[in-house]
Amino acid sequence: MLELRNISAGYDTGLVLRDVSLVVPDNAVVALLGPNGAGKTTLLRVASGLLRPSAGQIIVDGEDVTGKRPFELSQRGVCHVPEGRGIFPSLTVNDNIQLQAAGGKFKQSLKTAAEVFPKLGQRSTQIAGTMSGGEQQMLALNYAYVSDPRCVLLDEVSMGLAPKIVEEIFGYLHDLARAGQSLLLVEQYVTRALQLADYVYILDRGRVTFAGESGEIDEETMMNAYLGSLAS
Ligand SMILES: Nc1ncnc2c1ncn2[C@@H]1O[C@H](COP(=O)(O)OP(=O)(O)OP(=O)(O)O)[C@@H](O)[C@H]1O
Ligand SMILES: [Mg+2]
Q1: Which residues have CB under 6 Å of ligand 1?
Q2: What confidence tens digit (pLDDT) does each residue in 44-54 have?
Q3: Annotated domain spans of the chain
């Protein structure tokens, strides 16, 4: 579905990703793990067209889409739920949902949102930024349900939430995976992410240090990936 080939990318301050290759197959969950500052958010930004790579290609369904704008990637089914709360805090819940909707299907999107997340249905006229953190993250996640995506990029959607809400969020991620969505999942809850994932990539200082099936990875590799970068 989505493939990054030999991607290098960064900012004015310097290169972050170096020769990174990663594949998200159809109907598969891929976990992207690694320590703070490894380049996980940067990789998702490249994958959704927000950041243009300095080298390498982005392929969607076999087609080279490198250099395409974010909305063009979104039209091809790539949905990015960004780090932080990916919502418009000063707009109402309904306005946010309508902005998330694919192809102007406003009515249908409100219906879907209320079915999947009953709390959003109850809070339709509330200003999104006044909702609790968990409710705001549900609204952010709703994008993956109403934009009709094929591959969802999720950047730490469980961050800063109470354990019960984290549980709930992972329930929704399971549902998306069961419904046949491809997921590229950046998560700090490593064990939970591995339970959900078919494949795992570890990124350390902008390079892939492990790529394989999630069942292949052992605790030592995992520990080294995180602690190794702290030690140096
Ligand atoms: N807009 C930016 N301008 C300059 N440097 C940036 C920018 N965004 C990120 N960086 C740098 O790129 C590197 C990778 O950052 P990135 O946010 O991709 O890491 P991450 O793996 O998502 O980390 P975390 O787990 O803390 O979210 C860091 O050194 C960061 O300071
Ligand atoms: Mg990040």
Answers
A1: 11, 13, 16, 34, 36-42
A2: 999 999 999 99
A3: 1-9+16-77+149-162+173-232, 78-147
